[in-house]
Specification:
heterodimer, A: 4-stranded antiparallel β-sheet, 5 helices, 4 strands, elongated, B: about 60% helix
Chain lengths: ~190, ~525
């Protein structure tokens, strides 16, 4: 079944999502509780700053960014040990100041620095990858109302691909939860 | 009810924000409190989310302030002077500097260490204070991180040019040279390359990541402006506007167009999704955890440049902690040096950077200044107690030798001057604080000079020589100040100088369980606790 384009806006264009605006973090949290309990999966809350505790309200799983961080740190450690060991103790053996060729004590600063460097880079890269960014065009960004989320508004959007999506029912639900300015967003 | 939720306690007036009718003596601007049980507001002026966005973005979107262009011109002039000095150095040789035979490391290394030290405050504020949950940092962290990055840029110039033959600077990196010789990893000079390189990269990434949501805010505002009907042209457009412009329903001003594209690209398509915020906050916390030991490691490694050598006066184990404390000390001083004028020049900044924030920074200056003072005294004690005559001579020469004036300038500026902040008047009277921060900046420069000038008396008395800088040395240093100010002024003009989303996060309205939201639906209170 072609779920993706089974919903259309009033103009007959395939619909991406329905959104509603909320005025404060408390009402949007209450609305989010409703959508979590109702079993929606393709929906999101948009807010100018991270809302405290929204991950529990939305039922989000722990972030996987930590794995990226760990992989980066291990990679940095390995590269630093291998690079310094190979260059100093294998490929170009020169005794300097009577120190051993594989002087792990003296390799420690660079081992530490490279581990931190690669861990930091992979953490940030991981954050963007997990978030599907950079993505400079998104159907939601075409709505002027949606842009309010970067200022002082709180938005809930339910995507048309959600199995429980029902445009008419959602509009009344969103209104009853305190949402206003309900908009249908076209797929691009 | 058996237990009181903290937010309820706040609403009941048991703890939390106490309303002030206006500035009074004890609370200065309303951000201080004499009763430790009350929590003064972090942001003044009864601001809501919208006014936070409008104020911070307004500094960028409004007309260029009248002081900005002259300031930028002067900074540029200094930067150009410094660049010319570097060109002169490269085409002539290091003989244009005041270096002599024992002092083969002069102002270049002094300036390098000074700038790297200044670069410590930003990441300390954004990482260590973040882990300690010091919410007052939200109003200064962006500012301080920018300062860090520009300071490290200035620092990085000096090792690049002090190697003598600058076209050989690539040998700093682990790239095999023409004889397939690898760099010596057992030398602290190479550790320095990695430490400073890592610090710069991580600070830059941390700064950029923190800025992504705020750049997205600027993007959205530019997009809205772009879509708006324009009623009058920009200053440089012909007046009255030509007919075809008047007829058009919407005109896109080039400035808005450029802003929406540039901020759009930099914002990476951030759309304030909670699912994104969740990963973002995790990444932020991890970076804070990574950057915390990094901050402490950078100046430790810089100090190894000296401490690992076997020279009297340099070969001491106290160097790493003493350098780190000095770095934080000078970094906080420089943040205040920049913040205090900015607070005067930008209307509204005082609501975010409150008297309490400045007072907290003054306290950190006193603590780190005292650590530095302890280290100065301890160095002397160990030189005497260690019984090594060369070590003893190096220290006596430092304080009473030909550079006694530098030693006493350092001691006065770094140890005596910050002690004034024990008095409340001193750490709340802004012009006085500004003066002290300048003194501290000078003192920390002298500290590095004192350490480097130890070289002037080496093991062979016949080669002892007095080091004094040439005009080229001085102008190169002034040039680095110009580069720093140029970058900083560009930052103030085009990027959000306060972390908008973080400031919003510490407003009481950001808490979805705040009692102010319970009036319409009391039954929901306490759910989820």
């Amino acid at each position: 079944m072609a779920v993706k384009h089974s919903h259309t806006t009033s103009q007959g264009v395939p619909m991406h999502a329905i959104l509603a605006e909320f005025s404060n973090p408390a009402t949007v949290t209450r609305a989010a509780e409703h959508f979590r309990d109702a079993g929606y999966t393709k929906w999101d809350v948009f807010s100018p700053m991270p809302i405290h505790g929204i991950e529990h309200t939305m039922g989000l799983k722990p972030s996987k960014v930590s794995y990226f961080c760990a992989i980066g740190a291990i990679a940095g450690f390995t590269i630093a040990v291998a690079m310094q060991g190979w260059m100093s103790a294998i490929d170009y053996q020169t005794v300097t100041a009577g120190k051993p060729l594989f002087a792990w004590e003296q390799f420690t600063p660079i081992i530490f620095e490279l581990s931190v460097l690669l861990a930091a880079i992979s953490t940030i890269a991981g954050m963007f990858i997990l978030n599907g960014l950079p993505r400079h065009h998104h159907p939601l960004l075409t709505s002027e109302r949606f842009l309010g989320a970067s200022d002082d508004k709180f938005i809930i959007a339910i995507e048309a691909t959600d199995p429980k999506f029902d445009a008419q029912g959602l509009k009344s639900t969103l209104e009853s939860l305190g949402g206003y300015g309900i908009e249908e967003i076209e797929e691009d | 009810m058996s237990t009181i939720h903290p937010d309820q306690a706040e609403a009941l007036g048991l703890v939390g924000n106490r309303r002030h009718d206006g500035p009074d003596h004890d609370t200065i601007d309303g951000s201080m409190t004499i009763d430790p049980a009350t929590r003064p507001p972090l942001v003044l002026g009864d601001r809501d989310f919208k006014s936070v966005t409008d104020t911070i973005c307004g500094w960028i979107e409004d007309k260029t302030p009248s002081w900005w262009i002259p300031a930028f011109a002067v900074s540029n002039l200094l930067a150009i002077t410094g660049t010319l000095m570097i060109v002169y150095l490269i085409i002539t040789g290091v003989g244009v500097w005041g270096l002599n035979n024992p002092v083969s490391w002069g102002w270049a290394i002094v300036n390098f260490v000074w700038w790297v030290g200044i670069g410590h405050a930003g990441t300390l504020i954004s990482a260590i204070l973040c882990l300690f949950k010091q919410d007052w940092r939200t109003s200064i962290n962006r500012f301080a991180e920018a300062m860090t990055i520009f300071a490290v840029v200035c620092a990085g110039m000096f090792p690049g040019i002090h190697v003598g033959r600058v076209w050989m600077a690539w040998m700093l990196f682990p790239i095999p040279n023409y004889n397939w010789i690898w760099p010596n990893f057992r030398s602290p000079l190479l550790w320095d390359v990695f430490a400073v390189g890592t610090y710069f990269t991580v600070s830059l990434l941390f700064w950029y990541m923190g800025m992504v949501p705020d750049i997205a805010t600027l993007r959205d505002r530019a997009t809205k402006r772009r879509n708006e009907k324009v009623r009058f042209g920009p200053m440089w457009a012909p007046h009255p506007l030509p007919d075809f412009v008047k007829k058009a329903t919407t005109i896109t001003l080039p400035a808005n167009m450029i802003a929406s594209y540039v901020y759009g690209v930099l914002a990476m398509g951030w759309r304030f999704s909670s699912r994104h915020w969740w990963n973002y906050e995790k990444a932020y916390l991890l970076l804070a955890g990574l950057a915390t030991p990094l901050v402490l490691s950078v100046h430790s490694v810089v100090s190894f440049d000296f401490a690992v050598s076997i020279l009297p006066g340099w070969h001491t184990t106290i160097f790493p902690p003493y350098f780190v404390a000095g770095a934080v000390f000078s970094g906080f001083a420089m943040v205040l040096t920049l913040l205090i004028p900015a607070r005067m020049l930008y209307p509204g900044l005082k609501d975010f950077v409150t008297a309490k924030t400045i007072e907290n920074m003054c306290k950190i200056i006193t603590v780190t200044g005292s650590i530095v003072g302890f280290a100065y005294i301890m160095e002397f004690f160990i030189a005497w107690y260690g019984g090594n005559p060369y070590e003893q001579d190096a220290f006596v020469r430092r304080a009473f030798g030909p550079y006694w004036w530098a030693y006493f300038a350092m001691f006065f500026c770094n140890v005596v001057s910050p002690q004034v902040f024990w008095f409340k008047w001193c750490r709340t009277y802004i012009p006085f604080i500004f003066a002290i921060t300048i003194v501290v900046n000078i003192g920390m420069w002298f500290e590095r000079f004192v350490i480097v000038s130890t070289l002037s008396a080496d093991f062979l008395p016949s080669s002892w020589a007095y080091y004094s800088p040439t005009l080229v040395d001085i102008l190169t240093f002034v040039g680095s100040l110009g580069v720093f100010m140029t970058l900083f002024l560009l930052f103030l003009r085009f990027l959000p100088m306060l972390a908008i989303s973080e400031v919003k996060n510490v407003l009481p309205q950001a808490n979805p369980h705040h009692p102010m939201y319970d009036t319409d639906n009391a039954t929901h209170h306490g759910e989820g606790h």
